[in-house]
Design a protein that fits this description.
This protein is an alpha/beta fold. The chain contains 13 helices and 20 strands. The strands form 4 sheets. Strands 2-1-3-12-11-4-5-10-8-9 form a 10-stranded mixed beta sheet, sandwiched between helices. The protein binds nicotinamide-adenine-dinucleotide (NAD). Nicotinamide-adenine-dinucleotide binds next to loops.
Length: about 475
């Protein structure tokens, strides 16, 4: 018998303690070889003045055990409280959010009987880097950050997951017809890494039509890998159309640590009534058992759970008269699952985890290519509400100096000078693009500083600059509509 594996457990808020008790009862009776360290997170910790909902001692436990089974928490209303989930993901480097969404037809009501897919969402980058600014009276900005190593990790994880779990296809969703550089990189890396997995079918969808297809025909998908924001939105859609948000669990995986949870929140209105469905957290715990190398226990628990669902033992959120047999409480449901340990479902497909090889850590390409980088221009954003684009154009032209030339001004990404349309609506943030006077030349940081000085001396408010580079001769910046 292998040694017990230390895990950190948080009972959370609202229905959290009830569904965690149910989950731990089943894990205990299934023979999970774990040693539990309990930490407190969530509402009480927030209200004690810890803005991130977790105390320093709790981090110590998490960094020691590296495995976190977490019940949902309540984030108190009002400002100043950070999302504990986002903090935990970033601090522990949990780059992959894995969310299986399956329907359990005909035992749980669903419009999509054949649905069985897994969403693999990038968890650390994209707009969730949370880097935001207010720049002018009119304009706020959020930075969308997509990195090559971050993308390589998540895409490789998705293909490795598909291989381990005998999935036949991996689909990538991006918006690279518009976001050619950020989402374009995601798509490119998907193609590069996908080519290393010849046995797996690959496809790419533009996220808007892909989302429509997902909502309409989810059975057409198998594993879907996607950037953070699309993944956040579409994983909720997928869970909901599978049957109920109460049924899905999720794993947050990093190179060193991992966190497992239900996808739903703390459902405060259902708290303390012994009615909540513990299935989401239990299925999160099943993923944890596979992760810590106990696929035998994971399989026993998952199959017993499938059998209980199939036997019509349902909590009130999924109870349908005529389909379900018994409407049960949280504790009765836990008992029903525990009593079925050792059984497998008769009509639903039984799961098998034993054959699956252990999780491998997604590696980033060892030799990262260093491109030849050249500074070929600068965009200076100015806050200005003086008049027409032509007036600004004339003023800024005169500030270019002998070595630089104003190549264009754009407003919200649309060229407005020279030769803009009077119909184009403008806000008070203008992007002025300066290039060297010599075609194909480069510029220096010193020239940029001198330019900013001239702009400032002329009474214009430069709110930010963005350097324009080429990488091995390839443009490292987008051109404007109309440029
Ligand atoms: P919620 O997921 O708690 O509830 C949404 C709906 O689903 C409610 O009608 C609820 O009763 C039902 N529901 C959810 N889980 C259920 C279960 N296990 N059994 C039966 N019914 C269930 O979402 P919400 O109401 O928007 O948020 C409540 C609190 O949870 C908020 O404070 C929010 O910040 C927090 N939250 C936490 C997490 C997390 O810790 N991972 C995630 C989402 C929301």
């Amino acid at each position: 018998m292998s040694q017990n594996v230390p895990i950190t457990v948080a009972h959370g808020d609202g229905i959290g303690p009830e569904i965690m008790a149910a989950t731990l009862l089943i894990l205990g009776e299934a023979g999970a070889r774990v040693e539990i360290e309990t930490i407190e997170i969530g509402e009480k910790v927030f209200l004690r003045g810890h803005g991130s909902g977790i105390e320093p001692g709790a981090w110590e436990s998490l960094r020691r055990t590296k495995v976190f089974l977490k019940a949902p928490i309540t984030t108190p209303q009002g400002g100043g409280y950070k999302s504990l989930n986002v903090t935990t993901r970033k601090m522990l480097g949990l780059y992959a959010n894995v969310r299986p969404c399956a329907s359990y037809h005909p035992f749980v009501d669903t419009k999509h009987p054949g649905m069985d897919l897994v969403i693999v969402r990038e968890n650390e980058e994209d707009l969730y880097a949370g880097i935001e600014y207010r720049q002018t009276d009119d304009v706020y900005q959020s930075l969308k950050i997509i990195s090559r190593p971050g993308t390589e990790k998540i895409v490789r994880y998705a293909f490795e997951y598909a291989t381990r779990h005998n999935r036949r296809k991996v689909t990538c969703f991006t918006k690279d017809n518009i976001l050619k550089m950020t989402d374009g990189l995601f798509h490119k890396v998907f193609d590069e890494i996908g080519a290393q997995y010849p046995a797996i079918e690959k496809e790419h969808w533009i996220v808007d039509i892909g989302a429509a297809k997902l909502a309409d025909t989810p059975e057409a998908f198998d594993v879907i890998v996607l950037p953070n924001m699309y993944g956040d939105i579409l994983s909720d859609v997928a869970a909901q159309i599978a049957g109920s948000v109460g049924l899905a669990g999720s794993a947050n995986i990093g190179d060193q640590c991992a966190m497992f949870e239900a996808i739903h929140g703390s459902a405060p209105r259902r708290a303390g009534q012994n009615v909540a469905n513990p299935s989401g957290l239990l299925l999160g715990a099943v993923m944890m058992l596979v992760h810590i190398g106990q696929p035998d226990v994971a399989e026993r628990v998952h199959n017993a759970w499938l059998r209980a669902i199939e036997d019509g033992v349902h909590t009130s959120d999924i109870y349908v008269a005529g389909v379900s047999r018994d409407k049960v409480s949280t504790t009765e449901f836990a008992r029903a699952v525990a009593d079925r340990l050792g059984l497998v479902p008769e009509r639903l497909k039984a799961v098998s985890y034993r054959a699956a090889p252990r999780e491998t850590i997604a590696s980033v390409a060892a030799s990262r290519h260093r491109a030849k980088k050249a500074l070929v221009g600068v965009d200076v954003f100015v806050h200005w509400r003086g008049g027409s684009p032509d007036q600004l154009g004339e003023q800024v032209e005169s500030l270019s100096g002998g070595d630089l030339r104003l190549s264009m001004i754009s407003n919200r990404g649309v060229l407005v000078y020279p030769g803009g349309f009077p119909e184009t609506f403008c806000v008070d943030q203008w992007r002025c693009r300066f290039l060297p006077r010599t075609e194909g030349g480069t510029i220096t940081h010193g020239q940029i500083i001198a330019l900013l000085q001239r702009i400032g001396n002329a009474g214009l408010d430069s709110i930010k600059t963005e350097n324009l580079y080429t990488f091995d001769g390839e443009l490292g910046y987008s051109l404007d509509q109309g440029e």
